[in-house]
Amino acid sequence: MYIVTGCAGFIGSHVARRLLDSGEQVLGIDDLDNSSDPRLKRWRLEPLLRNAQFKMFNGDITNISTIHAISKRLTESGVHPDAVLNMAGQSGLRAANGDPHLSVNVNITGTLNMMELCRQHRIKKFVSASSSNVYGNSSIGPADEASPTDEPLSPFAASHKSAELLGHSYHNMHGLDVSMLRFFTVYGPTGRPDMSVLRFARWIANDEPVIVYGDGSQERDFIYVMVRNLIRSNISPFKPMRF
Ligand SMILES: NC(=O)c1ccc[n+]([C@@H]2O[C@H](COP(=O)([O-])OP(=O)(O)OC[C@H]3O[C@@H](n4cnc5c(N)ncnc54)[C@H](O)[C@@H]3O)[C@@H](O)[C@H]2O)c1
After folding, report:
1. For 42-78, b where at least 16 C-beta lie within 10 A, e where not — what string?
2. Exposure check for the chain: N or C terminus, fewer CB within 10 A?
3. Atom 28 of ligand 1 has which residue's CA nearest to it?
4. What share of the chain is helix, strand, coil (3-state, %, to 5)?
5. Is the CB of residue 89 less than 8 Å from the CB of residue 9?
6. By the 8 A CB rule, do 37 and 12 touch?
7. pLDDT digits over 159-176, tens only?
8. Ligand 1 centroid vs 171 CA: distance in angstroms?
9. b/e map of 173-186 (b: 16 or more CB within 10 Å)?
10. Burial class (CB in 10 A: 0-12, 13-18, 19+), 188
11. Around Cβ 97, how many Cβ atoms within 10 Å?
């Protein structure tokens, strides 16, 4: 069994579905807050909830009572999770516009709480979403994991970097096997409408000017979310939605 936080989010919902497609059980956690379009979250959750192997816990991972409730549930069920995949994060407009509390709460306190859950229940593996933002201006590209990450350029980047450091300390003190994934821009089905790929697509579809930052010469790698088992998972292909 796997615990996936942010299971109604773009990346978390894909992670949960891939695990279910592999025959695994998933306990998904999401607070379904309204920082981004709740209809999109419900749409992502719909196919997961149809799968009997998927259980959903509606809760905020920054709130210790959520961790206590999950902990109690694990103890009572006798189920021992193989790993925690921490994909919860703040991506709404307020976070993007620089409200530091949002990203600090979920990326630092939330990540800490989920690692504590691992420690308390002897869960050996912890995978958490970090961000390519941790590189700041240090990496000219192609990005290298060894590039310096000690000059984050925003509270959002600093919070992801802080979570990485907490991960290092939990590995050191408790032997937790930690992987922090420094995602570059992720795109694919059910992707986030606030991100460049869908914004460009929407502008083009609406015959509106495409806003490109910089002088247009910059290059960037994107990460595609694979949907190999689309048919088997019985997810409906993209339904047109208005945002
Ligand atoms: N999508 C990308 O291109 C990208 C790039 C770099 C880093 N990341 C990081 O990956 C993570 C996931 O990104 P995403 O694109 O899937 O975002 P998303 O907004 O689509 O999903 C995040 C999910 O987390 C949930 N959530 C937020 N705060 C929570 C809390 N306190 N408790 C429980 N659930 C909570 C939200 O309700 C949402 O469903 C984030 O940490 C983000 O910073 C994403």
Report:
1. ebbbebbeebeebbbbebbbbeeebbeebeeebeeee
2. C
3. 89
4. 40, 15, 45
5. yes
6. no
7. 999 999 999 999 999 999
8. 23
9. eeebebebbbbeeb
10. middle
11. 8
Q: How far apart are the first and last CA of the chain?
A: 35
What is the CA(212)–ligand 1 centre distance, in A? 24
Cβ of 194 below 6 Å from ligand 1: no
CATH of 2-224, one of 3.60.40.10, 3.40.50.720, 3.40.630.30, 3.40.50.300: 3.40.50.720
Q: Amino acid identity, residue 74?
A: L
Domain residue ranges in the chain: 2-224
Helix (DSSP H) and strand (DSSP E) numbers for the chain? 8, 8
DSSP-assigned beta bridge partners for residue 187: 224
Sign of CA dihedral 152, 94, 29, 17: negative
What is the spatial distance between Cα 190 and Cα 237, in angstroms, rounded to a whole number?
9
pLDDT class of 127 with cuts at 50, 70, 90: very high
| pLDDT interval class at 10 (50, 70, 90) | very high
pTM of the full predicted structure? 0.91
